[in-house]
From TrEMBL:
It is found in: Mitochondrion. One of the essential components for the initiation of protein synthesis. Protects formylmethionyl-tRNA from spontaneous hydrolysis and promotes its binding to the 30S ribosomal subunits. Also involved in the hydrolysis of GTP during the formation of the 70S ribosomal complex. It comes from the Eukaryota. Keywords: Coiled coil, Elongation factor, GTP-binding, Initiation factor, Mitochondrion, Nucleotide-binding, Protein biosynthesis, Transit peptide. CDD domains: IF2_eIF5B, IF2_mtIF2_II, mtIF2_IVc. It comes from Musca domestica. Residues 334-365 form a coiled coil. NCBIfam families: IF-2, small_GTP. This is Translation initiation factor IF-2, mitochondrial. Residues 45-68 are annotated as: Disordered. Residues 66-236 form the Tr-type G domain. Belongs to the TRAFAC class translation factor GTPase superfamily. Classic translation factor GTPase family. IF-2 subfamily.
């Protein structure tokens, strides 16, 4: 140390603070040094326990401050939810949605005339998006149920009512489209009352507001009803401490990477926070409001777009803020370990089955070997692991969507396909984001169709992989149905041309043999000699085949019209027609087959 500059204090108790001096001393000793993090003093047992994070216990009441209510707008498809929200915030989303039906959850803040802020969630009303609606009901404080006055209560209306009852969320009913001539407000109210909603008109406590979203009628009353309901509920939250929230939707943006829309439930979210949600984590690089403007912080009750996810969080998952990235990675390790454990438990049954099958096969082979002596049984080449094509046609698909919720909804609909015995439907791959080169390569090797749902295809496509661009879910399903139908073999369709009653059976001798002839009269349509005939006796088919000859009087003819008598001789002379039998003349033709898949909408 005497040879190192500034290392003058060489007492045994002296401390070295400067890292440069320590490096110099080590260099003089001819060694290399590496700087590592300080060891954490945690015993092995505690380490696993400290891994997962859970929401904090409820805050003491003196920390709570009022927060804006989260209001979810729900209702049947096409009843005017998005138009209502457009009128409330003065923008136009409905025209931007494909086909005028909402297929995403949108979240945004509206400032009412009295200065109060309200966060609105717009959910899809289409049948395919039930899981999205269920998430909307969990994240919300108040549900505004939109019912069209001319349609009344429909399937998704009923679903929303049951969701609200399950989640115990208060409901405000908005009867929309009252400007239409066929609107019947009273009938709609009666239907809602029959569904078990205690409306104010019938002595209950659920507010009903007739509105017209398009014309802006009574929207102030609706806003007032929402703020009254929020005041009654006394919504408060803790603005301090670590942030907690719910993922409403997640998507991949071409320029900005992985984004998620979330609603803050507690704490204040700022840039640089480290978040964990399910098996995903983020270091927040940016916060944006619903218009895409940057925000400095997001307080409870506000929707926010979070930029900086390493993996996409799943919609509906809880977001929790953790102290550091180190803590986040330990939480993820723990969660992945738990997920693997759960998966292993689920697949244990299958593994056991496979093991038993294998053992049985092995024992049989071993016994055969023992019987045959040592060298007798030579095994041939090994059987193929992958079985050959079983002849059933298949349609392979790759699904890419703009947001996680859409992909999930499409997969849910594909789950309803049951015709795997006629044509298999294979999902090769699915994901969020634009169609990439690797997707195209994958589709090529699997002979798959790529369905790009509201996302863009790659700029240059070299191969001839079919990429179908869709932005409406039922168009995608219709296209897939056509694709499946085109793979099905054609079906034979029968067309009945005519019928004849057998009046009497007589025999004629041909050479030395006596052959039976059915003396008949045509009762329906025409009989054609070239077509097939079926002999029906007491509802049972006795013969199905062709004719040997068809005669009228003594002449051989090709057709017999209605009400004409004739003698018909079947190809098979062993079949003897009897009086009272019916002969049916029919032709067959092949028609393309259609799939009977009904996705439920």
């Amino acid at each position: 140390m005497l040879f190192v500059k500034d290392a003058d204090n060489i007492e045994p108790t002296a401390q070295l603070h400067d890292i440069k001096i320590i490096q110099e001393i080590a260099k003089k000793l001819g060694t290399r040094i590496r700087i590592v993090a300080e060891p954490t003093l945690i015993s092995g047992d505690n380490e696993m326990k400290d891994k997962d994070v859970t929401p904090r216990p409820p805050a003491p009441s003196d920390l709570l401050k009022p927060r804006p209510p989260v209001v979810t707008v729900m209702g049947h498809v096409d009843h005017g939810k998005t138009t209502l929200l457009d009128s409330l915030r003065g923008a136009n989303v409905a025209s931007g949605e494909a086909g005028g039906i909402t297929q995403h959850i949108g979240a945004f803040t509206v400032t009412l005339e009295n200065g109060e802020k309200v966060t609105f969630l717009d959910t899809p009303g289409h049948a395919a998006f039930s899981s999205m609606r269920a998430r909307g009901a969990v994240a919300t404080d108040i549900i505004v149920l939109v019912v069209a006055a001319e349609d009344g209560v429909m399937a998704q209306t009923k679903e929303v009512i049951s969701l609200a009852k399950e989640a115990q969320v208060p409901v405000i009913v908005a009867i929309n489209k009252i400007d239409k001539p066929e609107a019947d407000i009273e009938k709609t109210k009666r239907e809602l009352y029959q569904m078990g909603l205690a409306l104010e008109d019938f002595g209950g406590d659920i507010q009903v507001i007739p509105i017209s979203a398009l014309k802006g009628t009574n929207l102030d009353l609706l806003a007032e009803a929402v703020s009254t309901q929020a005041t009654i509920m006394g919504l408060k939250s803790d603005y301090s401490g670590l942030m907690e929230g719910v993922v409403v939707e997640s998507k991949t943006d071409q320029r900005r990477g992985k984004l998620s829309t979330a609603i803050v439930k507690r704490g204040t979210l700022r840039k640089g926070s480290v978040l964990v949600s399910g098996l995903a984590h983020a270091k927040v690089r940016g916060l944006f409001d619903h218009n895409g403007k940057p925000m400095d912080k997001a307080e409870p009750g506000t929707p926010v777009e979070i930029l900086g996810w390493r993996e996409l969080p799943l919609a509906g998952d809880l977001i929790l803020e953790v102290e550091s990235e180190k803590k986040a990675s330990s939480v993820l390790r723990y969660r992945q370990h738990e997920a693997q454990k759960e998966k292993a438990e689920q697949s244990l049954e299958e593994i056991r089955k496979k093991e038993e099958e294998h053992l049985a096969k092995y024992r049989a082979e071993r016994d055969a070997r023992r019987l045959a002596g040592r060298f007798r049984l030579r095994q041939g080449p090994r059987a193929k692991e992958v079985l050959d094509d079983d002849g059933i046609p298949r349609v392979s698909v790759i699904v890419k969507g703009d947001v996680h919720g859409s992909v999930e909804a499409i997969l849910d609909v594909l789950e309803t396909y049951t015709g795997h015995d006629k044509c298999r439907l294979d999902i090769v791959h699915y994901g969020v984001g634009n169609v990439s080169e690797s997707d195209v390569e994958l589709a090529k090797s699997f002979n798959a169709i790529i369905y790009a749902f509201a996302v863009e295809p790659p700029a240059k496509i070299t191969s001839d992989v079919p990429i179908r661009l869709c932005n409406i879910i039922y168009r995608l399903i219709d296209d897939l149905k056509e694709e499946i139908s085109s793979k099905l073999p054609p079906v034979e369709v029968e067309e009945i041309l005519g019928e004849a009653n057998v009046l009497q059976m007589f025999s004629i001798s041909e050479g030395r043999k006596e052959v039976p002839v059915a003396g008949s009269r045509c009762t329906k349509g025409v009989l054609k000699k070239s077509q097939k005939f079926r002999l029906v006796r007491n509802g049972e088919i006795v013969y199905d085949g062709t004719l040997e000859s068809m005669r009228h009087l003594k002449n051989e003819v090709d057709t017999i019209k209605k009400d004409v008598e004739c003698g018909l001789r079947l190809k098979d002379s062993k079949v003897i027609p009897q009086a009272g039998d019916i002969l049916v003349c029919y032709s067959t033709r092949s028609e393309p087959q259609k799939t009977d898949w009904d996705p439920g909408f």
